Amino acid sequence: MARAFHPRLEDLPRILPVFPLSGVLLLPQGKLPLNIFEPRYLALVQDALAWGRIFGMIQPSAPPSGPAEPPIFEIGCAGRISSFDETDDGRLLVTLTGVCRFRVAEEVEATRGYRRVAADWAPYAEDLAEEPQITVDRPRLFSVLKPFLKLHSMDLNWKAIETASDLALTVSLAMACPFEPREKQALLESADPSHRAETLTALMEMAVAEANTGKGTLRQ
């Protein structure tokens, strides 16, 4: 997965706009389509386009309670706006390409309605590697992938899956599969791509096993 944009750690912004969105996962080198229509996030994207095109995706760690903004997880992933289009009704259709994970050092004052954090990039410097090292147990992954996709009525291009690199395969499946928010957070926080591939496979195996034994409900 060659990168068109390959910054150094010191090039990344200290103060990062963030878009909290539950159940949405962005990973380094992944591509996330976003349909932006809320005024404060239109402002976020407009500002990001003027200031380096980078903003962060992060999940709320709890549901909103009252008028206060919900708390957010400590770890998110920043992406760069790699393409965007304006619609006639004022929306922005954005593709965000994952760059590097970050730790929230602290939340700082919001601007134009959107939230911002002081980002600590240092723990995730390896995310910027051109070709991260990864080991995937493909036979094990593929043995559970088909029943998992059937379970969720998902139809993916199997030929593309079989020919994808280990990194592209892991990133694409982790982002696309319908895991619970905390499961997606576990995938994000995996120590490295190999550990993420192991976690991805284990989550699929658990979902299929639960369905086969009739215990629990299918994750939506």
From TrEMBL:
<protein>
    <submittedName>
        <fullName>Peptidase S16</fullName>
    </submittedName>
</protein>
<dbReference type="Pfam" id="PF02190">
    <property type="entry name" value="LON_substr_bdg"/>
</dbReference>
<feature type="domain" description="Lon N-terminal">
    <location>
        <begin position="16"/>
        <end position="208"/>
    </location>
</feature>
<dbReference type="InterPro" id="IPR015947">
    <property type="entry name" value="PUA-like_sf"/>
</dbReference>
<dbReference type="InterPro" id="IPR003111">
    <property type="entry name" value="Lon_prtase_N"/>
</dbReference>
<dbReference type="InterPro" id="IPR046336">
    <property type="entry name" value="Lon_prtase_N_sf"/>
</dbReference>
